[in-house]
């Protein structure tokens, strides 16, 4: 009997919306990342280095003009790829503060935001009510309920205060109520990221978020050119979550 040849569908990132370069702690330049993106057939790439309030990794504010100029030159040079400038801004305070100033607004095409360790908090108060409790909750389980409530409020305030397009690795590094965050993300047209380098969102959390008409993106969060477009185990995660590919804005099959 002849075996039916079945074409296996391969999932692929079209637009990698979250990538790092030497402007923060990536290993490759913008030009090298764009070259790699063209080689692996991406139709678009967004350069999104870390926000300014990180003392080691943060993009210095004077570099946004330089990054914009480099990207403008590359966009003129290549007609097979679109290159965007963004920033992975840091959530730095319980009021939903992120480290966005005029340079980011002026030069970036769009803004993403996520929680990271080691940032400089928005205020002295935030050290005590936001940063320290989140560190402490990792070893003191009784604090978990408190920080989940606070972090969820923080994410929601952030989405209402700022025009952000995407939340990177939601709930990673600090716990959140995914249900409440996804509801407000849907209302404010904010994309939730599925990130192969981080544990959240996981399949269970995607299932919860899917109840709302929120969109998702899978991004590599590449810090080297080799990692660009690399989805690692996310195809399995989205299969386990049962999410239709149409809900993921930057993927093709
Ligand atoms: Zn991140
Ligand atoms: Zn990142």
The CATH topology label is TIM Barrel
Q: What is the overall shape?
A: globular
Q: Strand portion, in percent?
A: 5-15%
Number of domains: 1
Largest sheet: 7 strands, parallel
Overall helicity: 25-40%
Q: Report the mean per-residue pLDDT as an integer.
A: 95
Poorly predicted regions are: none
Identify the CATH homologous superfamily: Metal-dependent hydrolases
Distance between the termini: 29 Å
- Total number of β-strand segments? 9
Instruction: Output the number of helix runs.
Output: 8
Bound molecules: zinc ion
Structural class: alpha/beta
The first-level CATH class is given as Alpha Beta
The largest sheet has its strands arranged as 2-3-4-5-6-7-8
Radius of gyration: 19 Å
CATH architecture descriptor text:
Alpha-Beta Barrel
User: Order of helices and strands, N to C?
Assistant: EEHEHEHEHHEHEHEHE
GO cellular component, one term: cytosol
GO molecular function, one term: zinc ion binding
Protein name: Putative PHP domain-containing protein
InterPro entries: PHP_dom, PHP_phosphatase, Pol/His_phosphatase_N, Pol/histidinol_Pase-like
Characterization of this structure:
Residues 15-93 form the Polymerase/histidinol phosphatase N-terminal domain. It comes from Acetobacterium woodii (strain ATCC 29683 / DSM 1030 / JCM 2381 / KCTC 1655 / WB1). InterPro entries: PHP_dom, PHP_phosphatase, Pol/His_phosphatase_N, Pol/histidinol_Pase-like. This protein has 253 residues and is an alpha/beta fold. The chain contains eight helices and nine strands. The strands form two sheets. It has a seven-stranded parallel beta sheet with strand order 2-3-4-5-6-7-8, covered by helices on one side. A two-stranded antiparallel sheet has the order 1-9. The longest helix is centred in the middle third of the chain and has 18 residues, at 144-161. Bound molecules: zinc ion (ZN) (2 copies). One zinc ion binds at residues 88, 114, 116, 168-169. One zinc ion binds next to loops.
